[in-house]
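Consider the following assembly input.
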Amino acid sequence: MAVKTYIEAIREGMDEEMARDKSVFLIGEDVGQRGGVFLASDGLYKKYGEDRVIDSPLAESCIVGVAIGAAVNGMRPIAEIQFADFIAPAMNQIIEEAARFCYRTAGDFNLPMVIRAPWGGGVHGALYHSQSIEATFAHIPGLKVVAPGTPADAKGLLKAAVRDPDPVLYLEHKRAYRLVKGEVPAGDGVVPIGKADVKREGKDLSLIAYGLMLTYCLEVAEKLAAEGVSAEVLDLRTIKPIDQAAIIATAKKTGKVLVVHEDNRFAGIAAEVSAIIMENAFDALDAPVMRLTGPDVPAMPFNHVLEEAFMPNPEKILAKAKELAAY
Amino acid sequence: MASVKMPQLGESITEGTISKWLKQPGDQVKKYEALVEVITDKVNAEVPAPLAGVLKEIKVKEGTTVTVGTEIAVIEETAVASSQAPTPTLPRERGREHEPAAIPEEGQIGQAFSSAPAEQPQGSQSAEGRTRLSPAVRALIEEHRITDAELGRIEGSGVGGRISKKDVEDFIGRRAQPVAANGEQRQAAVTAPGPGTETRVPLTPMRRAIASNMQKSKQTIPHAWTVAEVDMTNVVRFRHQVKDSFKQRESVDLTFVPIIVKAVVEGLKAVPVLNASWSDDGVVLHKDINIGVAVAVDDGLIVPVVHQADRMSIAGLAKSIDDLARRARATKLTIPDVQGATFTVNNPGTFGTILSYSIIAPPQAGILAMDSIVKRPVVLDGDAIAIRSMMNLCLSFDHRVLDGVSAARFLQGVRRWLEGFSDQIPLY
């Protein structure tokens, strides 16, 4: 196995899927000649040509709309939204069309399409380049939402998303792109959508996270171990459909759960995870389910101090985890 | 909403086990309708609904033991009930909640004991002061049958002294180990028989109740023991003569038990200090003589009570004891049936015993065991040797309440009454 960065794993995933299946193509702003603003598709334009790596106008509704049209005609598009913050203009296409297409046609049509969106903060990106959008889209039935946290999962879930018959919103964390490195198995390595993964076994408490927060939680688990607290880390990987069984299992195992995400607190994924635990594992709880999330403020500030105040980080997670352990 | 609480079903009863919910959440219940079966100290009792309404919630699962006063269910008053009222839409006043479930009538028994000091349910006070227990902790407590007393010994390591799951698990771990005071004992634990060489029989509520009572008795009552040998020849002869006609007339067997109980009543009349209870404020003498009669049942022992045995004839006692024993075996006893004994008679002799050291049932001061009646050569007055039917009467008594002299006086009284038995003693 080779150690790769998160973004390399994504690139490799796209490359392999495009090589494997001629109906797979990439469309987005600057994804072609420029190779993407983060260089996620670097080299693919040269390899597969302008017909399969398409530079789109600066119009997200167009990017998604084209992808829907292509998908309904048998193609497997990967539509890139340059920053998740810019997905709003495409929301009508995503929610009203893509998410409902299969349902509206009583299953006659599927939309096998992927919408990739670099998301999250902590990169000094300020208001328009730092947002988390998972809760907004996870609320929409008909959409699948994945948010890998490791290079292996990034590649494996990308492949699964491309091959999935339904629209998948694929969230890739910008800060993780080059920060997170990990071994990526050679070969296909498809990671099933809808399956969480216990990244670290523990018995005293559970940390549930996804995306960049997974890396932070693993770091915290290590620190907790040094203090004699055994923390289990559950990586959701897929936000929708969420892996209820895995959430219930870890809650039953440890009885103490902390859910961490960067997205705003109100009606966030942590609230849903918490409700799942209340409904299914109440008798096993030894403490209230706790949340550590981004605050309910309109956007991530540019001021670095304020940005730091917004973002969950290992120190904050550690402090909250200790509070839970001591409960 | 009215809460239904675990009622106090007897003066010494501190906890009850939910045996069976007769209503399920959502069911309509009428006022005083049986809501739940509760097993307390060796008896099944039905707890009636305190008001008419809908059973909203069951708070305590079947098989769970809770202390008296614990909320076991919630009943919501039906709108129907209030619409029938002359003033229909009065706003509900705060604090108008109903009192806990009505306690089955105790009547005279309660009064008989009104002078007895109310026992403080042990551990309930400390339990009140404790912080909330999490569902996980509750589940562990239930699974491992941790008593309130044990819970009181668990030190909480959580925030504000909260008992965490880990604290309970640690406690269970410690409890499972034999007390490892030294290396030798630890060694013993290691070489203990492995799985498969033993089975664990789950404790029934009755087993638990017996265990708890016996332990409490032995720990709090300084038992003293004394035996008298009784010549039962006259009684045996008399019984032999009349038992068939008695059975025909009364449809119950005339056993030795009612005769002994009669003798005990006479003995207690002569030595009232044995018909008493210990209290720190003074010995409580009971005016009624209520005799508990131990009855072996399938999985244990029940001691129903012949109330006011001092007002009964031998025939009356025979009928009463027969009825109680029959209902005990059919688990049809009511709460009053097992409450209020002031003295107990035990009959291990049916199983061939010759000397029995019984444990006193608190708050009584004594228990008498009748052992086997056996024919033995006995030296009579005038040095003649004769074959007589002999029986040992073994008395355990609370030495705080009385001394050996009174105990011996009681035994002598019983013995004389039995030995002087003749057909002159009325059956009715």
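The longest strand of chain A covers residues 257-264. Ask yourself how this observation constrains the way the partners meet.
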